[in-house]
Amino acid sequence: MALRELKVCLLGDTGVGKSSIVWRFVEDSFDPNINPTIGASFMTKTVQYQNELHKFLIWDTAGQERFRALAPMYYRGSAAAIIVYDITKEETFSTLKNWVKELRQHGPPNIVVAIAGNKCDLNDVREVMEKDAKDYADSIHAIFVETSAKNAININELFIEISRRIPLTDTNPSSSGKGFKLRRQPSVTKRSCC
Amino acid sequence: MAADVHKKKSWEVSNGLLAPADGQHVAERSESPTPGLAQGTEPGAGQEGAMFVHTRSYEDLTSSEDGGAASQSPEEGQGDQDDQIKMEQISKDFSELSTQLTGVVLDFEEEMRQSKDDKLDLSPQTSRHDSVLSGKEEEDVTMDAWRMHQKHVFVLSEAGKPVYSRYGSEEALSSTMGVMMALVSFLEAEKNAIRSIHADGYKVVFVRRSPLVLVAVARTRQSEQDIAHELLYIYYQILSLLTWTQLNHIFQQKQNYDLRRLLAGSERITDNLLDLMARDPSFLMGAARCLPMAAGVRDAVSTSLQQARAKSLVFSILLSRNQLVSLVRKKDQFLHPIDLHLLFNLISSSSSFREGEAWTPICLPKFNSCGFFHAHISYLEQDTDLCLLLVSTDREDFFTVSDCKRRFQERLKKRGVYHALREALLTPFYSVSQVGISDLRHFIYKSKSSGLFTSPEIEAPYVSEEEKERLLGLYQYLHSRAHNSSRPLKNIYFTGQNENLLAWVTSAFELYVCFSPLTTKAAAVGAVNKLMKWIRREEDHLFILMPQTY
Q1: How far is B342 from chain A (nearest CA, A)?
Q2: Among B84, B211, B245, B508, which is least packed by CB within 10 angstroms?
Q3: CB within 8 Å: B265 and A187
Q4: CB crowding A79-107: b at 16 or more within 10 Å, else e
Q5: B355 close to A (CB below 8 A)
Q6: For B327-351, what is the mean pLDDT?
Q7: What per-residue confidence (pLDDT) applies to B283?
Q8: What is the pLDDT of residue B171?
Q9: Mean per-residue pLDDT, B514-537
Q10: Which of B129, B356, B403 lies closest to A14 in CB terms?
Q11: Closest CA to B313 of B327, B292, B324
Q12: According to the UniProt record, where is the region Disordered (chain A) (predicted)?
């Protein structure tokens, strides 16, 4: 079966649940007392998508201020960026808009942007309306989904949607059509992704 | 209480050099009752040179820099700046040493401009971050419970702005911190410096490291010197997150900057460091504890680690629960024990390293306080907490370094030592009964030239956490007596209600021993000689005698 490598990075304010989303996707587990990520964390997961294997190379970045300057290192080589906000915190949605701006200015031109409104299990204390976020996402042609890492809502769907959206040519410009086999890329190419 | 004390010889020339004593310091053959134990020949001394920068880091901290603690205005930050120059020298070889996160500085300047407009906006945001990230309920600082803590630690900026408080929220303490800063400035106006206040069973200790002021309020038995030592660790901890350069740059740009903004999320690391210092003798000893392991297994592990090298790697460190399994370093580069402790603390303070491979900038302030290294951190085994830490100079080198990890694991399996390593990891402590001395309860032995120490498991009657901390408190007390800068001691015999202790400090080693209260001084002295022989016999098991380089 053909194997594609998809590089994805997660961005967003601190405490919105980026790591929780990754853990849910990769390990199918959830830890309510998860510690803040330090620097960035790298994980992989291979899933079947139609008749291909998609290997996600995931960079889960730290949301804290002092790591902010490192973000370009991670999104520069990414085919997709998942920007996460917390539906119960209005400010995190403003931070998200800054991330979108930054990606537009400095990110790779064809990067697939996905917006995830996390903690949708906490509907009672919601501060960001789903419609507002959806409208915003549509205006920038981004994938939009509300997720809950805690209750495993829409997590796999989010990654499936990314699988669907990343153009084939993005991961391997030299081949077109289906059925190609992507080997582990030489380290030179790899370096550029982090 | 303490009887039988001998004045220490004044051999203690401050070794400010960063080069280690390579076991060649035979000159310092003192009249120690164990002839032949000159530095570099004591049990546990490495045979191929040390792994660490050779310092008696305790004195290194308190003497060579303490002058600076007295009064250190930004212009006369001599201690640090001298260090800086030496640091720069070492790191010269590192042509590719990736340094500052220049981006942060740029962002920061931009933010300065913005924040002129929305100053008020900053603080509520920061407080939100605090409450989200610290994960603990902030204590009410007006309650008695808050006052009852054994040791408070506060960090503030020279403008009197709170940076960190061990207990309670910084905001609630801003007026208290203002008073602290007022005290410091009041005395400085007269060209004096406040070092400590002693009252009502409390010691209030001040350490000044411009642009920060660190204050501890303690009810412990520790000496002022020891508390100042811990505050310096906190200072280095902050440097490890920001670098000295960035910290100074920030406050040069804006004196009343709220540093909590940049430190958000790191409170846990500092909290953990303070807790660890109260529990783990590594910090007191200024040395690393080795995981006991058969020499052959350790050598095979070290060789595997050494072979899994990459150009940008400076240190490869294998550890399990704050115990060192193996350390391989680049030739001519030495790690300072303080830097190693900061790395250990970082790893033990966060569960976020347990999954995946972490890649984070880290400054090793004793190595080079101006730049960042990049650390690759991954757990190889969850149940034994075996953790691999690879320190690289190149922030873009993640995949190369990650490949080193894979190669290391492959070699371990190929050499067939994986199983033996696991066995060792499952029995990380030895029992004091193995020494075969009745009345011997516990000991700490440090080899000065290797910067390593060994210690058996703490057993009954020190079962509860309080009792364990009390035992460490006794060691701290002996240590502070032995290292008192005005009146250092070589031998101390301490008779207490619940135990008798003996301390023996020479130029080559330090030994602290705890006996049952029924032992006599003569028996204790005899037992110590027996203990030294036992350590010598077991040294290849207890220490890393053959450190490797790449």
Answers
A1: 14
A2: B84
A3: no
A4: bbbbbbbbbbbeebbebbeebbebbeeeb
A5: yes
A6: 92
A7: 92
A8: 81
A9: 92
A10: B129
A11: B327
A12: 172-194
ipTM for this model: 0.85
Instruction: Kindly tell me if the per-residue pLDDT of B30 is higher than 60.
Output: no
For residue A67, name the pLDDT band (cuts at 50, 70, 90): very high
Taking CA atoms, what residue in A is nearest to B268? Answer: A35
The verdict on a CB contact (< 8 Å) between A38 and B261 is: no
Question: What is the residue-averaged pLDDT of chain B?
Answer: 80
Q: Are A35 and B350 in contact (CB under 8 A)?
A: yes
Neighboring chain A residues of B241 at a CB cutoff of 8 Å: 66
- Asked if residue A45 has pLDDT above 70, the reply is yes
What does pLDDT average to over chain A?
Answer: 86
Stated length of chain B: 550
Tell whether the model's pLDDT for residue B116 goes beyond 70.
Answer: no
Confidence bin at B49 (pLDDT 50/70/90): low
- CB spacing of A70 vs B103 below 8 angstroms: yes
**Among the ranges given (B76-90, B362-376, B460-474), the one the predictor scored with the smallest mean pLDDT:** B76-90
**Per-window interface: B 251-280 vs A, CB < 8 A:** 261-266, 268
Distance CA B27, CA B109 (A): 54
Range scoring the smallest mean pLDDT among A188-192, B97-101, B336-340: B97-101
CB contact under 8 A, A191 and B397: yes
Considering CB atoms only, which of B104, B128, B352 is closest to A38? B352
Q: What is the pLDDT of residue B48?
A: 62
Burial class (CB in 10 A: 0-12, 13-18, 19+), B237: buried
Most A CBs within 10 Å, among B110, B247, B270, B399, to test the A interface: B399
Helix (H) or strand (E) holding B212: strand B212-218
More reliable by pLDDT, B12 or B370: B370
Q: Do A69 and B104 touch (CB under 8 A)?
A: yes
B306 vs B316: CA distance, rounded Å: 8
Give yes or no for residue B326 having a pLDDT over 90.
yes
Instruction: Please name the residue that has the structure tokens 């920007």.
Output: A83
More confident residue, B112 or B369: B369
Q: Are B412 and B421 in contact (CB under 8 A)?
A: yes
Q: What is the pLDDT of residues B389-435, one digit of tens each?
A: 999 999 999 999 999 999 999 999 898 888 899 999 998 899 999 99
Q: Which residues have C-beta within 8 Å of that of residue B143, sequence separation ≥ 6?
A: none
Contact A149, A20 (CB under 8 A): yes
| Contact (CB, 8 A) for B171 and B179 | no
Residues from chain B contacting residue A19 (CB–CB below 8 Å): 352
Question: Minimal Cα–Cα distance from A59 to chain B, Å?
Answer: 10
CB within 8 Å: B268 and A40: no
What is the DSSP annotation of A92-145?
A: HHHHHHHHHHHHHHHS-TTPEEEEEEE-TT-GGG--S-HHHHHHHHHHTT-EEE
DSSP codes joined into one string, A44-106: EEEEEETTEEEEEEEEEE--SGGGGGGHHHHHTT-SEEEEEEETT-HHHHHHHHHHHHHHHHH
**Residue B119 burial (CB count, 10 A):** 11
Give how far A90 is from chain B: nearest CA, Å: 12
Average pLDDT for residues B172-188, to the nearest whole number? 87
In this complex, do A35 and B132 lie within 8 Å of one another by their Cβ atoms? no
More confidently predicted of B258 and B99: B258
The answer to whether the Cβ–Cβ distance between B351 and A40 falls below 8 Å is no
Cross-chain residue pair A35–B352, CB shorter than 8 Å: yes
| A143 within 8 A of A112, measured Cβ to Cβ | yes
> Based on the number of CB atoms within 10 Å of its own CB, is B238 exposed (0-12), middle (13-18) or buried (19 or more)?
buried
